[in-house]
Specification:
It is a single chain. This protein is of the alpha/beta class. It has helices at 12-23, 43-48, 64-76, 91-102, 119-122, 132-137, 139-145, 163-191, 198-204, 214-225, 241-251, 257-268, 275-288, and strands at 4-8, 27-31, 55-58, 82-85, 107-114, 125-129, 155-159. The protein has a seven-stranded mixed sheet, sandwiched between helices. 33% of the residues are buried. One of its GO terms (molecular function) is phosphogluconate dehydrogenase (decarboxylating) activity.
Length: 301
């Protein structure tokens, strides 16, 4: 019998995951109150459409939205049903969710998902946490979502509840550092007059070099579409995982200078006129008489 999965959240990731599951022969029923592609009109209808024991994968933003959905599911599901949090929840939230559901006889897994908008085509890397029996039960879903090839290359049962999101948190912290290194290299190339074609240099690194990666390929693609990145602002958000990674590095006394610096660089990107750098400029002027650049006078509204 074809496995049925309920999927809550049809955003950029969730919608593509639903389509990949369907393309791989699973029946995925999606619900999202804000999406025209929703298959049902309510969470109740989603639960009613699934055969017992039910499996529901939650793919909504971390924090309050995830807690709200899991709370609603706790009142709709029955003992033996299974909930998977596949969003970017903080690993400490997983035990809370698991304990609440366990009191009602409902099973729980957490799963970090990486692959972005390319996952429908290329597959997703999956990092799951929870009991082995629940992992086995959902393995057809994991196998449908991950890339083709050896399971161990793109799927891991990382440990008990919370371990999947912890692994994804560290993954995203590493991602911060890698992106920052590529970005700084790009800026340094662009600053040198002798470099005639910055995108061409980066593209030449795509094959054979020790720094080749998918992130580098994506940077090359972005520059091919907008060579000077002139259509973009430097303002860069962080979704939380970088902060949590740095907090965990502190808690475990693990030095993580690259990830920390990458996180702080994102904070710096949001400051139009950095108070800290103003203070540095003032100090240089005070102790050394170094020239300072005066702020432009405010315009008249």
């Amino acid at each position: 019998m074809t496995m049925k999965l309920g999927l809550v959240g049809l955003g950029r990731m969730g919608l593509n995951m639903r389509e990949r599951l369907r393309e791989r022969g699973l029946e995925a029923i999606g619900y999202d109150p804000h999406a025209a592609d929703s298959d049902v009109d309510s969470l109740e209808s989603l639960v009613e459409s699934l055969p017992a024991p039910r499996s529901v994968w939650v793919m909504v933003p971390a924090g309050a939205p995830t807690r709200e959905v899991i709370g609603q599911l706790s009142r709709l599901l029955a003992p033996g049903d299974l909930v998977v949090d596949g969003g970017n929840s903080r690993f400490t939230d997983d035990k809370i969710s698991a304990d609440v559901l366990a009191g009602l006889g409902i099973r729980y897994l957490d799963c970090g998902v990486s692959g972005g908008i390319w996952g429908r085509q290329d597959g997703y890397a999956l990092m799951a946490g929870g009991d082995a029996a629940d992992i086995d039960r959902l393995m057809p879903v994991f196998d449908a979502l991950r890339p083709d090839g050896d399971r161990e290359d793109s799927f891991v049962h990382a440990g008990p509840v919370g371990a999947g999101h912890y692994a994804k948190m560290v993954h995203n912290g590493i991602e911060y550092g890698l992106m920052q290194a590529y970005a700084e290299g790009y800026e340094l190339l662009a600053a040198e007059d002798s470099i005639a074609d910055v995108p061409a240099v980066l593209r030449a690194w795509s094959k054979g070099t020790v720094v080749r990666s998918w992130l580098l390929d994506l940077l090359v693609q972005a520059l091919s579409e907008d060579p000077g990145l002139s259509s973009l602002s430097g303002f860069t958000e962080d979704s939380g995982e970088g902060r949590w990674t740095v907090e965990e590095a502190i808690a475990h006394a693990v030095p993580a200078p690259v990830i920390s610096a990458a996180l702080f660089a994102r904070f710096a990107s949001r400051q139009h006129d950095s108070p800290a750098m103003k203070a540095v400029s003032a100090l240089r002027n005070q102790f050394g008489g170094h020239a300072v650049r005066r702020a432009e006078p405010a315009g008249i509204a």
